[in-house]
C-alpha cells in the first residue's frame, strides 16, 4: 500500500510543474500501473505510449544511436513525453506553452524515483496486492471482439454484433 501511495504522490508532484496537465505510469507491455490525468483515458495513453516507445527504441537501435531514453511528441495542442522509469514507462502530458526543459528536468528525476518504486511493486508476491489482500477484479469488461467477413466486393468489412 505504501508503494502505491508513493507512486501516486510522485505522479501528483509532476502537476507542480507549470503547464503539466497529467501523467501516466505504464508497464513495458502498455498496461496501466497508475495515472494522474483528467481529460483522457489513461489506459489508452499507457498502451499508445508503450507502442510509440517500442517503435522509438527500434528506430534508435536501427540507426545506431544507442539506448533509448525518451520520446517527445509535440503537437499544436501540447506535448507528450515518455521516459524510461526502470522497466516501466512514464508519460507526461503538457500544454503547448510548457517549458520543455523544466518538464524534462523534473520528469527525469520523477522517472528515476518511479523506477525504484516499480521494482518494489514487482518484488511483491504474485497474486497479492499490497497489504496481503487479494487483487481487485478488473475495473472494466473487455471490449467485444470484432470479426470481419468478405463483402460482395471481395474486401473485408466489420461484422456488426
From TrEMBL:
Stretches the record annotates as Disordered: 123-161
Ranges for domain Roadblock/LAMTOR2: 7-94
Compositionally biased region (Pro residues): 132-141
SMART domains hit by this protein: Robl_LC7 (SM00960)
Domain of life of the native organism: Bacteria
Compositional bias segments (type: Low complexity): 149-161
Designated name of the protein: Roadblock/LAMTOR2 domain-containing protein
Organism of origin: Asanoa hainanensis
Amino acid at each position: 500500500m505504501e508503494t502505491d501511495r508513493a507512486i501516486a504522490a510522485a505522479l501528483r508532484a509532476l502537476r507542480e510543474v507549470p503547464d503539466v496537465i497529467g501523467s501516466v505510469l505504464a508497464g513495458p507491455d502498455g498496461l496501466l500501473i497508475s495515472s494522474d490525468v483528467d481529460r483522457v483515458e489513461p489506459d489508452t495513453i499507457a498502451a499508445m505510449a508503450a507502442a510509440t516507445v517500442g517503435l522509438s527504441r527500434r528506430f534508435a537501435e536501427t540507426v545506431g544511436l544507442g539506448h533509448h531514453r525518451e520520446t517527445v511528441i509535440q503537437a499544436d495542442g501540447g506535448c507528450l513525453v515518455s521516459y524510461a522509469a526502470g522497466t516501466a514507462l512514464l508519460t507526461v502530458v503538457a500544454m503547448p506553452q510548457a517549458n520543455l526543459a523544466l518538464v524534462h528536468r523534473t520528469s527525469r528525476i520523477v522517472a528515476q524515483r518511479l523506477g525504484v518504486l516499480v521494482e518494489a511493486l514487482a518484488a511483491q508476491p504474485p497474486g497479492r496486492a499490497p497489504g496481503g489482500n487479494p487483487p481487485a477484479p478488473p475495473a472494466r469488461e473487455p471490449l467485444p471482439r470484432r470479426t470481419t467477413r468478405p463483402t460482395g466486393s471481395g474486401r473485408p468489412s466489420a461484422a456488426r454484433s
